[in-house]
TrEMBL record:
Cellular location(s): Cell membrane
PROSITE patterns: ABC_TM1 (PS50928)
Protein family per UniProt: Belongs to the binding-protein-dependent transport system permease family.
CDD domains reported for this sequence: TM_PBP2
Alphabetic keyword roster: Cell membrane, Membrane, Transmembrane, Transmembrane helix, Transport
Protein name, per record: ABC transmembrane type-1 domain-containing protein
GO CC, one annotated term: plasma membrane
Primary localisation category: membrane
GO biological process, one term: transmembrane transport
Native organism: Brachybacterium alimentarium
Spans traversing the lipid bilayer: 31-53, 95-117, 129-150, 180-201, 232-252, 288-309
Span of domain ABC transmembrane type-1: 91-307
Membrane topology field: Multi-pass membrane protein
């Protein structure tokens, strides 16, 4: 046994350099593959990596954007953000959007998936396609279309007046009391289809014999869902919730085209605050906007870490997962 283990150790040591040499040889032989990847790597570096790193540098500078370079001012931008009511207003609007829109999207998509997963539902393929169509439509286009639909003279407002729900026409996107909620409703409608697909995939993992056993025990439809189906969907619930949470913080295109953050900053989420400060203000403040972007990016990173931990925990809860 000693001689065998020694031989195995010697062979493992001699095989390691061969593996490394073969990898280098493969890189040399197939260099043309990486040549095709070069445009993507260059584009990713110029339009993703460089702006990300540059924003951290600009966050510590006083730079209005007119000069070639700014002046270093340390933590002044972050101190100013701490006392800026418009920044905290935008931060609060983003959190409010998240708290309302994300659970609504998750729950409605689950109900829709349960309906489409039922054997009694006709034309399932047609309904799945119809609910998924808004997902592949550009958010900016949807924002422009719904600006017209939600106008005071739009069909939605006129229908509410005709039905007697409101006495006068309401411009939902120009009203401070409804502008944010109009954005929430349109965002949920647009992305409902992708979350529905997630839930449909999750429902396929529930064994059919589990449903049959619950029905044989006399469980009602609600009892079967609450005590059998939902506990098995908890790992997927964690994953879907975390994915939708990150998605709810990236609503710039939709909100910018629908409301532009107005009226009176009533629907200005943090992304619109950054855009307005950097590009739409009378005097652009790129350093100040970069500091806000850094804080927003740190929040997104924290959520991404939570998402990764949640997905790992969810996988351990799934059948066959590592506990």
């Amino acid at each position: 046994m000693t001689f065998v283990s020694a031989d195995l150790t010697r062979s493992a040591r001699t095989d390691a350099p061969r593996t490394r040499k073969s990898l280098v040889r493969r890189l040399r032989e197939r260099w043309w593959i990486y040549l095709f990847l070069l445009p993507t790597l260059v584009g990713y570096g110029l339009y993703t990596v460089y702006p990300l790193l540059a924003s951290w540098v600009y966050a510590f500078m006083d730079w209005p954007g007119f000069a070639l370079t700014g002046t270093f001012n340390g933590l002044e931008n972050f101190i100013q953000l701490w006392s800026d009511p418009l920044f905290w207003n935008a931060f609060g609007k983003s959190l409010l959007f998240l708290v309302v829109a994300m659970p609504t999207r998750v729950v409605l998509a689950l109900l829709l998936a349960l309906w489409l997963n039922s054997r009694a539902t006709p034309f399932k393929g047609v309904f799945r396609t119809l609910f998924f169509l808004p997902v592949v439509t550009t958010g900016a286009i949807i924002g422009i279309v719904f600006t017209l639909l939600l106008d005071a003279q739009g069909p939605i407002s006129l229908a509410l007046v005709w039905a007697g729900i409101t006495e006068t026409p309401v411009n939902f996107v120009a009203n401070p009391d409804t502008s944010l909620w109009a954005g929430v409703a349109v965002w949920v409608w647009k992305w409902l289809g992708i979350t529905m697909i997630y839930w449909l995939a999750a429902l396929q993992t529930v064994p059919a014999d589990v449903h049959e056993a619950a029905q044989l025990d006399g469980a009602t439809g609600w009892q079967e869902f609450w005590r059998v189906t939902l506990p098995l969907l908890i790992p997927f619930l964690i994953i879907i919730t975390l994915i939708d949470t990150v998605s709810a913080l990236n609503v710039f295109d939709l909100m910018q085209t629908m409301t532009g953050g107005g009226p009176a900053f009533s629907s200005e989420v943090i992304e619109i605050f950054i855009y307005r400060t950097a590009f739409a203000a009378t005097t652009p403040q790129l350093g100040y906007a970069s500091a806000a972007a850094v804080l927003f990016g740190m929040l997104t990173v924290v959520l991404a870490i939570v998402q990764a931990l949640g997905i790992r925990a969810a996988r351990s809860m799934m059948p066959g997962g590592n506990s």
